[in-house]
Every structure is written in C-alpha cells, then in structure tokens.
Design a protein that fits this description.
The protein is an alpha/beta fold. Helices cover 40% and strands 15% of the residues. Helix 1 packs across helix 7 and helix 4 packs parallel to helix 5.
C-alpha cells in the first residue's frame, strides 16, 4: 500500500490532509513537533506518528529514517499566523524562525525523502499561500517564506523529474477551527460563496498525488478570492 508522509499533520490543514488520505486508503505517517496534538489523532491501523522538528536536520533525518517507503511527501508544516509586526521592529530571531520552519523545513523534508521518492516514482506537494503573491501589512517574513517555497517547488520539479513530480498548493482563507466565528461577509468575499475548509486543500493534495502530467505547478485553492477586484466605497 502506498505511504504518505504529512508534516504538520497534527493540526489544522495538515490534520485534514492526514484524515483525507487515510479515508482514501493510504498509509500515512503524520509528522509534527507537537506530541500532544499527535496523540489526539484518531487511532488507525494505517497511521504512524512521528515527532520531529522540520527545521532541525538531525530531527528530520531520524524521523524519515524510521520509514521504509515514501510515495507522497506533503510538506505542510509551517508557523501559524502570518503577522510579525512592523518590519522595523521584526527581530532577526523571529525572521529566522519563519524561514527555518516554513522554507528550510520544506527543503530538509525534500532532501531526506528524495531517495525513497526516486524508488517509488513518487510526488512532493509543498504548501505555499496566496500571500506569496499578495499581502496585508506586517507579513514580510511569512510572505518571503511562501514566495521561497514556490521557487523551491519549480526548482525541485526540474531537478527531480521525471522520477519525482513536485507541485505546490497556495491556500487562501481556510478556516481550521470549528469554533471560528465566521460572518456572512467573510463568505461573501469569495466567488465560490464560502470560506475554505481543510478538506478543500486535502482534495487538491489527492489530485496532485495522482496527476502524472502535472509538475512544477502551484495550485491556488482560495475560492476565487485572489481573482476578485475589491474597491473601497
């Protein structure tokens, strides 16, 4: 049976991807540095739990070394919350935390999974964001990491093809907490008529895992929001 490795798999979008892939018959290894959240994933015979920090190479190497096969890497792990405050007060430490987890973490996961993926003829799905192409104030570090992930995605696709396909997903507004108090105006901003859900991203992962003639692409999953012109009245 095919094996997927999903980073940041204990919460939010990552959790949704893990559950979706299990429903579709995959064996799934969920990797996260949050051991408590990992333990709250539903017990499933096809689910493995890996505690690791994607920004730390020995931690990544040890976690991947526990596997014997990878057909799909979903490099989803990232720091939640894009706002870092005004750029003139953004600390170098905070900048490096975003770079280390979001961008370096994606690189390290790819680096250590590629030998398995070459053997299986597998695929990588990275996790960008619509903020790689548009911004709100005070999101410099987050936006920079997501832009870097998009560039890394096409670079890996060229370097690893044809044995390994590499694509990315750029989610827009995805409500990951069932307790989110969403308003009608929040849904109305989206041409699709609603705010996104983790399963919307998960279905895109499934598509990219199987799309044999698609590589080097970024699939935007945002309900059409980035295509809507907004005028202030």
């Amino acid at each position: 049976m095919k094996q997927a490795l999903v980073t940041g798999g204990a919460n939010g979008i990552g959790r949704g991807i893990v559950l979706h892939l299990l429903e579709r018959g995959w064996h799934v290894a969920a990797l996260d540095r949050d051991a408590d959240a990992l333990s709250r994933l539903p017990k499933h015979a096809a689910l493995g739990l890996l505690e690791a920090d994607v920004s730390d190479e020995p931690s990544v190497a040890a976690a991947v070394g526990r596997l014997d096969r990878v057909d799909l890497l979903v490099a989803n792990a990232g720091l939640a919350g894009p706002e870092g405050g005004p750029v003139e007060t953004l600390s170098l430490e905070a900048w490096q935390d975003w770079i280390g987890t979001n961008l370096t973490g994606t690189f390290l996961m790819a680096k250590h999974c590629v030998p398995f993926l070459r053997q299986s003829g597998g695929a990588i799905v990275t996790m960008s964001s619509t903020r790689a192409r548009m911004s709100e104030p005070d999101c410099e570090a987050y936006a920079a990491t997501k832009g870097g992930i998009e560039a890394l995605t096409h670079a890996l696709a060229v370097s690893l093809g044809p044995e390994v396909r590499v694509n990315g997903i750029a989610p827009g507004w995805i409500a990951t907490d069932e307790g989110d108090a969403l308003r009608e105006i929040d849904h109305a901003q989206h041409p699709a008529g609603r705010v996104g859900r983790p399963e919307d991203v998960a279905r895109a992962v499934s598509y990219l895992a199987e799309a044999e003639f698609v590589t080097g692409q970024i699939l935007t999953i945002d309900g059409g929001m980035t295509r809507k012109m907004i005028y202030e009245h």
